[in-house]
Amino acid sequence: MIQKLLVVISLVFAAFAFAEEKNTCMSCHTETGSPEAIAFKSDIHFQNGLSCSDCHGGDPSAEDMEAAMNPAKGFIGKPKPADIPVICGTCHGDMQKDFETGVHGAALKNNSEGPQCVSCHGIHNILRVKDPHSPVSALNITKTCATCHSNAAYIKQFNPGLPVDEYEKYLTSVHGKRNALGDTKAATCVSCHSNHLIYKVKDPRSPVSPMKIPGTCATCHSNKKYMAQYKIPTNQYDDYAQSVHGVALLKNSDESAPACNSCHGNHGAAPPGAESVASVCGQCHQANAELYDKSVHRTVFRENSLPDCVVCHSNHLVKHPEDTMIGFHPDSLCGSCHSDVATDRAAPVIKAMRTTLQGLTRGQTEAEELLNQAEQLGMDVAEAKYTLKDVNQSLIETRVKVHSFAKEPVQESAAPGLKVIAEAREAGHAAVKEYYFRRKGLGVSTLLLTCLVVLLYLKIRQIEKKQQ
Amino acid sequence: MKSRLSDWVQERFHLSGLVEFAAKKKVPYFRGSFWYYFGGVSLFLFIVQVVTGILLLMYYQPGAKTAFESVHFIISKVQFGWLIRSIHSWSANLMVLSVFIHMFSVYFTKAFRRPRELTWYSGFVLFGLVLAFGFSGYLLPWNTLSYFATKVGTEITAVVPVVGEPIMQLLRAGNDVTTSTLTRFFGLHVAIFPAIFTVILSLHLLLIQVQGISEPESWSEYPEHKKKFIPFFPNFVLKDLLLWLIVLNVLAILAVFYPWELGQKADPFAPAPAGIKPEWYFLFMYQSLKYIPAKLWLFDGEVVGVLLFGVAGLLWFLVPMWDEKTPKGLRNKLINYAGILAVIFIIAMTILGVK
């Protein structure tokens, strides 16, 4: 704040000084028809009293050209690209610091072709950011960024792997479309990436890094006042944060978990249409999507314009799927469309799928309890316990096969798991049986040994009596 | 029938002399004669060790990739394998305990005195071999505890000046405890130690038979008619057998109710588990070393500790040489005090070590 005040004060003093002092730079260069001098007259800096010498150095009061552009008086001529942020930073120190910390500053440091202040803001005709003609105004910024970021030949000098289709995608996004219609509230590049302090996307400090993306989107999308005019919900972030995806990313820091951009796209952000939902979810849930594509549900949902996966799993609030979702119980989903009546052909399939899944989960729990019981009795059931873990794989596969919405594939993939459960149970029962066998064996042997001891004792007594 | 059979044996092996010898042999019978039976119990437990050890040998495979697995196979798949393994482990521990009791009973009754010095020396070597059996056998299941206990145990030998380091390398078959150590310990446990043990045990038993069982000190002044004896055969032998049966039953109870755990497979790259300790019979030495300061004047505390144990062991071994009879040939009190001190020290340090 104090710095800004000082800048304003210095600009005011400079204006007074300019009023009184001569500016031979402007007078000569205007006379010679220099486009820079002509453009500079509309520049915000000129209008606030700054002169050419504030950036280029020299003595604007000297009548003689040689004296005015004397290096001894600080004249530097056309500044080198790397020096520009330093010159601008004389007044705009904070921005210079941000720029140099960010990815653009690093690019300039390594390559003189890299971006600097004038690449975005213009050179001698710099306008206020809010001025609609400014290249960095809300309606122009995306085009300005695209000057470099859509130029494959230019971008590859710095990062050959960086895509150059961001602007094209942006134009297809809801943000881009609204921006094109003149909506200055619609998100532009700087809304998400920031302006001067831009980090690489993978840098955890970046607002578009995987962990921060939901929060960045929520800046606008959870702001009821800001979003009021668009008449769309603002609870997406809250829902997402509670979802299986949100918990994985935000609580468990699993960066492979999907964020907003994983489903909506990043530069081309838009809600996926009903027909695209399965493809979007299928990016990660491939096996489920393949089964769904061949299932009866796909046809029916398409006919009724229902959004595929979202029908059962919701969109932002995707909960961890439970086996109870299948069936006709109060907390089951199938009952929303189907009925447990003889006329509904799906009813036996739904029941069979639920029974199969229960067979695996209950069977696994019961077998585990049995093996634990045997273990507590001191029996070694480590091998059976280890093999029982295979049921998890079978369970995962079976749960995926549910998306075929047919009982045969579900039962087929459950079969190996059920076999393992049966073997584990057998091992558990055998171990418990063995435990009791050992106890009985010990009892019998103790009895025999005790008899022998008693007989031996009597024999010794008999011998001793005889000897006496 | 019985007579024909004994004639047949007599004709071929001339055993009548041996039977006559056993029948004439007498064992002193007094208040403390109970302690005599611990020699027999130790022998019985050794026989159990040999029998169960041979059975385990049918399935055990030494090697970093097979040792643990084969022991697991024995206890989980082999019919009665769990019983054999548990009895082997329990009888090994009871044997160490029995040998300790036997040794101290011989010490306190002064049975090591002339002419039985050689019996004491051979007994002491057998005691050392029993500990060596325990140490080498402990590593064979190749589980976490045995691996790190062996590492710590062999490390202590390196403390001994000059010869310590080569001894440790000889024991480990290298610089560290590896699969080479395992195969070396296996060879020692099942071939070398049993061979030496059998020879020395035979000598020990022979000496006992030839010299007879030592009479208590107080009997030296007794007239012959006041001394009470029981025949070695059948009285003593039958009583011994009775005790063996009880010990066998104890072993079976321990094996069924407290089966010897196998634990987790050794992982040489894993950090040593917290509170790693040697087997209970080495615990008193291990615990004592912990109490010795790191520096004792100019010397390393651990070196001093190990050397002191070495000297104590040597003195114990040579006790027939420095024990002097009183003018009346009665008990030497110094010997008794030293023995009592040793017993108290071992028990106290073991209890502290267990805690």
| Main interface: chain pair and counts | A-B, 21 and 21 residues
Terminal residue distance of chain B: 62 Å
Number of domains of chain B: 1
Poorly predicted segments of chain A: 14-20
What does the oligomeric state look like here? heterodimer
Q: Helix coverage percent of residues of chain A?
A: 55-70%
* Structural Rg of chain A: 38 Å
pLDDT averaged residue by residue of chain B: 91
Biggest beta sheet attributes of chain A: none
How would you portray this structure in words?
The complex is a heterodimer of chains A (468) and B (355). Chain A is mainly α. Chain A has a domain at 346-432. Chain A is built from 28 helices and no strands. Chain A has helices spanning 2-20, 24-31, 35-40, 44-47, 53-56, 65-68, 84-89, 93-101, 103-110, 117-121, 141-149, 152-155, 166-172, 174-180, 189-193, 213-221, 224-227, 236-242, 244-251, 260-264, 277-282, 286-294, 296-303, 310-313, 346-376, 382-388, 390-401, 407-467. In chain A, α25 packs antiparallel against α26 (382-388), α25 runs antiparallel to α27 and α27 runs antiparallel to α28. The model of chain A is unreliable at 14-20 (pLDDT under 50). Chain B is an all-alpha fold and 355 residues long. In chain B, the strands form two sheets. Chain B has a two-stranded antiparallel ribbon with strand order 1-2. A two-stranded antiparallel ribbon of chain B has the order 3-4. In chain B, α11 (280-291) packs across α12 (301-317). The mean pLDDT of chain B is 91. At the A-B interface, α28 of A face α4 and α10 of B.
Short description:
The complex is a heterodimer of chains A (468) and B (355). Chain A contains 28 helices and no strands. With 468 residues, chain A is an all-alpha fold.
Blueprint (SSEs and pairs):
The complex is a heterodimer of chains A (468) and B (355).
Chain A: H1 2-20, H2 24-31, H3 35-40, H4 44-47, H5 53-56, H6 65-68, H7 84-89, H8 93-101, H9 103-110, H10 117-121, H11 141-149, H12 152-155, H13 166-172, H14 174-180, H15 189-193, H16 213-221, H17 224-227, H18 236-242, H19 244-251, H20 260-264, H21 277-282, H22 286-294, H23 296-303, H24 310-313, H25 346-376, H26 382-388, H27 390-401, H28 407-467
Helix pairs in contact in A: 8-9, 13-14, 18-19, 25-26, 25-27, 25-28, 26-28, 27-28
Chain B: H1 2-13, H2 16-24, E1 26-28, H3 37-57, H4 67-76, H5 81-108, H6 117-139, H7 144-157, H8 164-172, H9 179-211, E2 229-231, H10 232-257, H11 280-291, E3 295-296, E4 299-300, H12 301-317, H13 319-322, H14 333-354
Antiparallel strand pairs in B: 1-2, 3-4
